[in-house]
Write a structure and sequence with these properties.
Elements lengths: L10 H14 L4 H8 L3 H13 L3 E3 L14 E3 L6 E6 L3 E7 L5 E8 L5 H16 L6 E6 L9 E4 L4 E4 L1 H9 L3 E5 H12 L8 E6 L3 E7 L2 E2 L30 H5 L1 H12 L5 H9 L3 H25 L3 E5 L5 H15 L9 E5 L3 H22 L6
Parallel strand pairs: 3-6, 6-9, 10-13, 13-14
Antiparallel strand pairs: 1-2, 3-4, 4-5, 7-8, 10-11, 11-12
Helix pairs in contact: 1-3, 1-12, 2-3, 4-5, 6-12, 8-10, 9-10, 10-11
């Protein structure tokens, strides 16, 4: 059954069918009935109102098989518009998408304040601008922190927030339903429904950038826990002889892989400030200090990916974030370490590199908004034709 679909009675059947079509389409009615363990007649009754509401449509392709030929079902992009915003400590990255999370417009804006009301105004203003004043069905906002109820930011260290009713603030400014989510959970949902791992029932997402993140989908569901937002993947030990992170852990994933840590190592080694791009450029030129730092980071990526695959028992990992650039210089070192840390008889690991940047994070937030809107869409009256 597809992510976040619940139950199989009445409107719940339509909700389950719509969710499954969005994630797995094109899908035949027979396959859809099989996925949801429903009879063909029940599935036919559930699909008709989805087509009538313009939420799904039949493709032009005809499937031949037992019984009558059929046309697969797919989600309809339509003219419904959704907003997605990813907050950092300095900026808001925003997109407006259609119902299939296709990016229609995107932009970024610096935050002039961390006051929740000010940030809410910035987010709403940017989304309205990107939507060109078209009404939004809903919007999602993701951030580094936790919002267990989808409304209240329990904690957001980069913004200095605790117990902020941020969903209410943005909603009052935007005039559309708003859902708040942890940024990694939202990114994982986006990869699952519309991204690099669309339709897969089990996979992991690893992000490498200012910090290290881990998202997981098991049995077609995004794994969400109360500790989302604590950055626990950043404390995984990778090298007992490596540098220490800010928390004092030696050779952990933050110390080895996070961009600020790489910059700090290079700055100490070269005895002058060095940015991430310069570290990579010097490593590519075989400068000894930066070459070893980047090679160590690449080996650390290989070890981290092997640990995720071994412990979560997944065959697909989506890797995202600016820190992926170390693999452009030392990708061979990553692959060697990954091979060394995997059982030689284990299934081949499918690594899917997502280099779309913060746009994909914002699309993940839009995906959460799309998911939250589905029940309302199937309960809305059918417009007369």
């Amino acid at each position: 059954m597809s992510t976040d679909a619940v139950g199989t009675r009445g409107g719940e059947v339509e909700l389950a069918a719509l969710s499954t079509i969005l994630v797995h389409g094109p899908v035949s009615r027979t396959e859809l009935a099989g996925r949801l363990a429903l009879s063909q007649s029940t599935m036919t009754r559930a699909v008709k109102p989805l087509i009538d509401r313009g939420l799904v449509h039949e493709t032009s392709e005809v499937l031949e098989g037992p019984g009558r030929p059929s046309r697969p079902l797919v989600g309809t992009a339509g003219d419904r518009r959704y907003g997605g915003a990813k907050l950092t400590g300095d900026e808001v990255f925003a997109v407006v998408t259609d119902m299939l999370a296709t990016e229609l417009a995107s932009d970024r804006r610096a935050l002039r304040s961390h006051e929740p009301a000010d940030v809410a105004r910035e987010v709403a203003a940017l989304l309205r601008e990107l939507a060109d004043d078209a009404p939004l069905v809903g919007a999602g906002v993701s951030l580094g922190g936790s919002a267990a109820d989808g409304r209240t930011v329990d904690r957001a260290p980069f913004l200095g927030w605790r117990d902020v009713r941020f969903g209410d603030l943005v909603e009052s400014e935007l005039g559309a339903p708003v859902v708040i989510d942890n940024d990694l959970s939202a990114l994982t949902a986006g990869e699952h429904w519309f991204g690099e791992a669309r339709g897969l029932e089990d996979f992991a997402v690893v992000t490498i950038g200012a910090g290290i993140g881990l998202g997981l989908v098991r049995h077609d569901q995004v794994v969400r826990t109360p500790d989302m937002g604590l950055g626990l993947a950043g404390h995984v030990p990778l090298d007992p002889t490596g540098p220490r992170c800010f928390a004092g852990h030696r050779g952990c994933s933050t110390a080895m892989l996070a961009i600020p840590s790489i910059e700090a190592q290079a700055s100490i080694g070269l005895q002058r400030p060095v940015g991430f791009d310069e570290v990579l450029a010097l490593a590519a030129e075989a400068e000894p200090v930066c070459s070893e730092i980047v090679a160590s980071a690449a080996r650390g990526v290989g070890r981290l990916l092997a640990l995720v695959a071994n412990l979560a028992m997944v065959d697909v990992i989506v890797v995202s974030g600016e820190g992926l650039a170390v693999l452009d210089v030392a990708g061979a070192a990553m692959r060697r370490q990954l091979t060394d840390d995997r059982d030689p008889e284990a299934h081949a690991l499918d690594l899917r590199m997502d280099r779309s940047g913060f746009s994909r994070w914002a699309r993940g937030a839009a995906t959460v908004a799309i998911q939250a809107s589905l029940r309302g869409l199937i309960e809305a009256p059918v417009s007369p034709r």
